[in-house]
Specification:
Elements (H helix, E strand, L loop, with lengths): L2 H6 L3 H5 L16 E6 L13 H18 L7 E11 L8 E11 L3 E10 L7 E10 L11 H11 L18 E7 L17 H9 L6 E7 L6 E8 L2 E5 L5 E8 L4
Antiparallel strand pairs: 1-3, 2-5, 2-7, 3-4, 4-5, 6-8, 7-10, 8-9, 9-10
Length: 260
């Protein structure tokens, strides 16, 4: 289904009622980490707009750069659970950007990270994103509470805001569309499974089949980690699920064309 068909699909009305993760404003006090990025050749579609999977890589890279700069990179292994990317204007090839990221909330063994992607020259902020990351013990790889050192670094910016790790997207029961998708071994990362940025590629494939998108608001939840191989992408209106051969749901997607 193309983006034009998504926009007029009757099931999109239900999607518009979905409560996306809140995009909270930057903190008045506390740590905000800043880095730079440029939309390069491998980041962009033939039209010159940046792809969603490239934006996802920017988000995970600045997240690691932040914890490394703060001196707490060895305290945990972070695994992304949910990401919302809201694009008011797609970055274009060659443009330079400032990425600003901060902790926007804590849970028992997870934390939320907000990121703003602002154009270095134009001064606008065409992309806002928020991700929920689960905090794993580096030895056991089981969820573990944040360390006192991590709370010291990020607690002031979080300002006592609590977040939940509960998944909200519905199951793919009754999905009316299906197509095949293959994850490659080259898409695996140091964690030994398909990197989260690769999960955005099936959606990108559909966007490339339709008209050039000017804006998009999309949320993805990551469930069971995927290994390379053939998958199914199930669809129902503006919802998508990436499903393994055994029926395991690897990720789910909800998209909206409307602004907040």
């Amino acid at each position: 289904m193309t983006q034009r068909e998504w926009a007029s699909h009757p099931n999109l009305l239900a999607v518009r009622a979905h409560a996306f993760t809140e995009l909270v404003p930057p903190p008045r006090r506390g740590r905000v980490f800043t880095s730079g990025a440029r939309a390069g050749l491998a980041d962009c579609a033939p039209s010159g707009r940046i792809r969603l999977d490239a934006l996802a890589r920017w988000l995970q890279d600045i997240a690691y750069d932040d914890v490394e700069d703060a001196g707490v990179a060895g305290a945990a292994v972070w695994v992304v659970r949910r990401t919302r990317i809201k694009v008011a204007r797609f970055p274009r090839f060659g443009e330079r950007f400032s990425l600003n990221t901060f902790c926007s909330g804590f849970g028992r063994a997870w934390a939320e990270r907000r990121t703003t992607i602002a154009a270095a020259q134009a001064g606008d902020a065409p992309v806002e994103a928020v991700s929920l990351w689960v905090h794993l013990d580096p030895s056991s790889r089981r969820p573990a509470p944040l360390t006192p050192e991590e709370i010291d670094v990020y607690g002031e910016a979080a300002a006592g805001r609590k977040v939940t790790a509960r998944l909200r997207h519905q199951a793919p029961d009754g999905a009316s569309e299906a197509r095949r998708w293959t994850f490659r071994a080259t898409e695996c990362d140091v964690a030994g499974h398909v990197n989260n940025a690769a999960y955005w590629q099936p959606l990108e494939e559909e966007l490339l089949d339709g008209g050039e998108p000017h804006e998009i608001d999309v949320e993805m939840e990551f469930r069971n980690a995927a290994q390379p191989g053939q998958k199914l992408v199930l669809g129902d209106g503006a919802r998508r699920w990436i499903v393994g051969g055994d029926g395991d749901v690897h990720a789910s997607v909800v998209m909206s064309r409307e602004r907040d």
